[in-house]
Amino acid sequence: METIQQTRSRAIVLQDFESLLMELHSQKNNYVVNNYVLCQSGSADTLDKFSLNLSGDQLTDSITTIFSDIIISANNLNQMGQEFFESISMYDEVDNDGGSILETVVEFLPFLQKLEQFVYTTSELTKNLLLQIHGFLNFGRNEIKNHRVEQLPLTRMWRTLGELLSIFAVLDALILSHPFLREHWAVLIRSVRLVQFNPAQFDLEGLSTGRLQHLNALIERLDLVLMNGKILTNTCIKLKQFDQLSSDRQFMERFRLAIMQMLTNWEKHLNSSENAIPDKKRLICLLTLSKLFHHLLPERQRPDKKMISKLSGINKTLISFHLFADLLFIPFDFILKEIPGAAKVVDKKVSSALELTKRCQLNKLLENLCKYVQTFSSNLSDWQKRMHEEFKENEGSTFDYVKSCDLFIEGVHMGEIVDRLLKYILNIHLAEQKPISKANVRQIFVLIQFVKTISNTFISNWNSVIETINCGCVQLSALILSILQSIIQSNGESKQSFFANSLLNSALSLSQPIGRKTLIVAGVSLELANYKVLFLGQRNSSRKLSKTYKQKFQKTLRGSDIQIDETLKKLDILCNFGQVLSNSTDLSFLYWHRLSLVQAFCEDLIQEQTNDFSNVDLPGTINDFFSAINECGRLVISVKHCDQQTFLQTFSNELFLIITNNFLSKLCTEIENDLRLSYHQQQSSSFEQLEKLFSSQNPLQQEEKPLNKLLLNLLQIPRVKLGNRIIDVFDYVTNYLSSTFYNFSVIALHDSEAYNRMRILAKHRYGLNLEDYQLPTRCVDQGLDLITLLREEKMSKFLEDYSYDLDEQFFIERSSQSKQLAIVRVQQIVNSIKTHGIGILDPLINTSYKYMRSQFQLLSRCLSDEKLKSTLIREICFYRDSIDQLEQMYPMERAEKMTNSLKRYCHKIAGGPSLNIIERLRILIVRIGNIIGLLRMFRSGILETFAPNITFGFKNNKLMTDLINNNFNENSIQINCAKLCDKISSNIADYLTSNNDSIELLTSMFAKEFRGNNKFAHLRDFFILIPSLMIVQIEYISKCRARLSNKKMSVSGGLAVAGGSFNEQFVFVEDGFSIGIAYVLTLLNQQFFFNSINWFDSVFNKIHSEIIKCKNEQKLAFKAKDESLARLLSLKQSQLNEQLEEFTRLMYSLNSALTFLQANEVGDENIDETYLDDF
Predict the structure, then answer these.
(1) pTM summary value
(2) Which of 481, 685, 889, 1141 could bridge to 1098 as Cys pair (CB 3.0-4.6 Å)?
(3) Closest residue by Cα to residue 125 from 136, 133, 114
């Protein structure tokens, strides 16, 4: 009674805990998994082998204790085996992208060592159990008198022996069915042998040879014990070494009879009712026991034809079934391959008939799938109704606990049927590589929902279930005790003391708190007492009693053996009901079908528009499916070949990607299209009319189309947890629509009014709270809108029509049809950022990168011209040979000569006009410089836009934390929020105060490609081309300024002048050229090479000498009174002074550009400065 009171007290505590969790469940942000409390029912096992309260007979108690301990150990090994099975099956899901095969299999090696130890322990226990059975039978014949021990069935012992052998059978099947594991293992063996043969090749000379030999011996042992897939066969061969087993004919005959009796009982159970489930565990036990039996047979003795024929007849009722993971087990194949001599006994017609039956089985199953679903649906509804009535009756004073327990077992039985059907259908499709039709996939979804419904029914009433099971166990044990008490009293002082003491032991064990161990002791004691024969004998002996007592006694014993068997089975289920329910409703096997099922489910949600969309249970259906998929996480965390958290993250991302592509994205598109169509239908409506039209506060109260009802139901799906990710449909759709409406409003500001109305419509129709970003419209001095530069063609036209000023940092229009020229300053960039948001800069930088890449391609193509390359190489050779005579200054005469030569060489690129090559190169340099200037203005615009944030300073990185640190605990929510706020502030400060900008990013990107790459070797001669480019640039800018200062220009009468184009008329600044030259020099790392030719010194010396010479000639002309010559010399002198000013201005501009670009070093600039030695 104390145990029951403690259990009820625990149930009250759990009920309070459940109410607390239900409050969380009722909240909108719920993502708590439904299986929040899954505890074991029944009392804890307090039974210990040293404190057994048994009969007191030393012989009987010792035998009972030995067999009970072995069975308990076997049960523990079975539970451990499930963990090993999961880890081996998950190795097939290995991903080698992150590491090599050797790293993966070496990570798996410690697990294989544990598995080897587990196999050894199980093998030893198998050997001990078999020898104990043999010893007991021999001991009983000699020591236990007046007893026929050979008639004892010992069914539990034989079944336990079969369960231990079944562990080896499953391990063999898992290892042999995983090609990845076997292939990786072969790679490991080859690698270890190679290292052992030649350790010096792998820098392992310092490693002792003993350690290598030990590793090699370990791997060879693991290969021999585990990886050959013959664990069961090796175990049977080891047991054959005990000659006392094979030579004992009575034992072998008893072994054979036990197998035949168990097989008969299995078939009888299968034929007992239409809803009987084939016990696949018992079947594997029978097959493994048959294999062991035939291995123990003497070599000359033939296989047992009767046993093999009876085993082969199983294929008439059960062809194949799900074994583990994605494996199907075919009993007939096991008989042919594993049982010695079975291939000779089995008729070949049976094999051919089996192949034909396999092909027809799947089709027959799929044809009847709809009927199965309908049957399950009606049975489930009826069971739920009875469960509801039972829980209502539980509130009364009188209650039949045994009846409720039978109802619980019926639910578990129903869940196991559906679960097995799901496993078989999915795995047989996977094995035969056949796709599942849409109709069958929907039936599979319904079956999954059935399983989750059964599980949720128990979990939602778990407290009542626990209390009912505890009371039911007491009633059932009392029922068995009453039967045993009547038998014990009727026997009195029996001569068969061993059987009587065994019967007493069973009664004493059942009188203790019911647990798994007590039931094992009771079952072993009953079998040692041979209770079935005992009950039969008692019924026969009752004939000598009086008529009245005889009828009463026979009524008591009638069917008692069957009743005890059924009651023990119920107690075995009920005492471990939590684990039984978990196994019966386990959907973790969906892991091997997750991709196809999740994709089909998501597609079906969006594409299926013929269902009743007003079905309010749709969110629950979706939640059940994703809850079933989430059970796969139990398998994910069992991996041993890689990091569990990394594998779980991969699993979660994989599912999230499928759900996003097949469900969330399509749902967002459907809702967006619906909002757009609805808006255009009410396009002329005002805000007030829209408010009237959608005045209902509850979106579900509106009369909408069926599609809208479906979308509303899909939006009401609660949060779903998959792996370590949480999927919130409502938040995802809200974020998508907010981002989409914002992006379209930025691109087309004139449509911002339309998107504001769509936000109102989304609020009233779907309950979506979309954020209105309230982007400002244009200002008075708006200027250039950056949105026009998003396309590469528009940016190219802008850079051709505008010239850049490095000092004032603005772009000015080259020409205009009006009397004014447009100017783009940093303020216009700021206005554009404030209008469209900071997000517009990313696509602008991407467009700039594409444009700059195209210009570098043209530059590379021009410099790869053979004539130009030969000209540049000739100039370099000349400078190399006469560098001392030239005083390390490249002469201006050579530059002018090369310029005139290149002007006569026209170069045409496909799709462009024909220009001389030096002019084309100058234009490319100017465009490159202009794009760098534009990026510089972007950077300045960002800094000016966020100037208040910079003035704030962020000097204290823990400002918010320090403000509230004194008022709250260290781990409180407020402290965590303050830390997050400080982290955001620190990130903003780092971004605004750092020197990392788009120019440095592009420079580093292009520099890595150009420097040290033989593909761009022709660009190494660029520095020697700069003098000619400067001469052409000086001529160009001088002509433009001369035309601009020409007083005879007429504004009304056309500005075209021979030899120039219209776009050249108003150009007075062209700093894009100097920035372009500096940028290319920086990318190619040729600043030193250009400085080594001392070009500006050479130019200034040449011009100064020309000016002095001109002055001297002018003096001579004045002396000769030659006025015309003097005027010409004066004009020439002014031209030289103007040329000197232009070169000086260009030198300062180039130095400024180089200083700006060299503020941050890019790439590796430590290259050998021996460019002249290459020629």
Answers:
(1) 0.66
(2) 889
(3) 133
